[in-house]
Specification:
The protein has 204 residues and is an alpha/beta fold. It has a single domain, classed as DHBP synthase. The protein has six helices and eleven strands. Strands 1, 2, 3, 4, 5, 6, 7, 8, 9, 10 and 11 form an eleven-stranded mixed β-sheet that branches. The protein starts with a strand and ends in a 9-residue tail after the last strand.
């Protein structure tokens, strides 16, 4: 099912089929600030495994899955970090960043990478924030871009065809050029920049 939505002014009633699918352990596709992404509820082990399968990631991968949150307090709940790291996070979010941190005990084991880390995102996109708010829990996220070296223009109609039978709902926000987020990995009292993307590299 493909549903046309406005990412900047989403109507809650249009999101209802996607929310219903998420609550039934299904995977959806939705637009973000860095392109289209797979999504499932944080509490859905079935959904997490489906996203891992879709992305070709196993538990031995060093690449963590990420999840969307709506509040800075969620960083303290789902991750372990020093105060200096939190100060930087507070300064740059919401925005196009993936923050890789040590996962707390509230993060499902099958969501972490082999180093026990999780990626956290808080994008400045009304649609993403509304999905998390209405779902009542964080949204697990995985990019649908096949390759980041030569990304292709993402057409939601093509995504619906490509993932029919494996993804329940596609929220169609129009055609998007994927532009990866900037990845910051916590290291000691600061960050290492592991990928320069859409978000400007913050001052040290």
């Amino acid at each position: 099912m493909r549903i046309r939505v406005d990412p900047d002014r989403p109507a809650p009633r249009k999101l209802a089929p996607a929310l219903e699918a998420l609550r039934r352990d299904q995977v959806v596709i939705y637009p973000t600030d860095s392109g289209y992404a797979f999504g499932c509820a944080l509490s859905s082990r079935k959904g997490i495994q489906q996203i891992r399968t879709l992305k070709g990631l196993d538990e031995r991968s060093r690449k963590p899955l990420s999840m969307l949150v709506n509040d800075l307090s969620d960083f303290g709940r789902y991750a372990v970090m020093p105060t200096s790291v939190f100060r930087t996070i507070r300064r740059i979010l919401p925005g196009p960043y993936t923050i890789v941190l040590e996962a707390s005990q509230d993060v499902p084991r099958d969501l972490r990478n082999r180093d026990g880390q999780i990626g956290l995102r808080m994008p400045d996109v009304p649609l993403c924030r509304m999905l998390v708010e209405l779902l009542g829990e964080p949204l697990v996220r995985g990019s649908v871009t096949p390759g980041e070296v030569e990304p292709e223009l993402e057409d939601p109609e093509e995504l619906e065809r490509r993932y029919r039978g494996r993804v329940e709902v596609v929220l169609d926000g129009g055609m998007l050029w994927p532009e990866p987020s900037t990845i910051l990995q916590a290291s000691g009292a600061g960050f290492e920049v592991t990928r320069v993307g859409k978000g400007p590299v913050p001052d040290r």
